[in-house]
Amino acid sequence: MVKILAIGGSTRPGSSSELAVRLAGKGAEDAGATVVYITGRELMLPIYDTESVDRVEAATALVQALREADGVIVASPGYHGGISGMIKNALDYAEDLAKEERAYLDGRAVGCIAVAYGWQATVSTLHQLRQVAHALRAWPTPLGGSVNAALVSLAEGNEDPATKAQLETIGRQVAEFAIMRQTAAR
């Protein structure tokens, strides 16, 4: 069984980016993965500090979840044309894995999802998420998610069908990649 870590959201519980990461996580679950969610206010961590090994409990839990993950799904709101500070800071904690055998997110698929009110912020945020995934030695999935929250709903029971399918596909791609890597390693 592969384990996928799904992180995303904003400080607002039930935000569009949190709903998006949960829909993508459902796609991974449907593909046979176990999904661990760290979302919203659980991601309100101290600024990543390279000069200290002291970590609050939530940061330690995030780093452990990254360490154990066979794949990752990340959904960020687009703030002022880019990744939110909260999501970028959470990803910065992958630096704690730098000296491990499987450094950073090496060899893992990362499903990247950007949610914003408008296409410009959505597309630029998605591009930045893919760049960060590459910098962490990960494999961004072929399909990335661009969700224009001004045009579509992700609310449960009222999800835009095409957007829901796109997000579930991203989660499925992360899980399938992880399953393929696990099978190849046997």
UniProtKB/TrEMBL annotation:
Pfam families, sorted: FMN_red (PF03358)
Tell me the ranges covered by the NADPH-dependent FMN reductase-like domain, including all copies. 2-142
Q: Which SUPFAM superfamilies match?
A: Flavoproteins
Per the record, its GO cellular-component terms are: cytosol
One GO molecular function term of this record is: FMN binding
Q: Which residues form a coiled coil?
A: none
What is this protein's name? Unannotated protein
What organism does the record attribute this protein to? Answer: freshwater metagenome
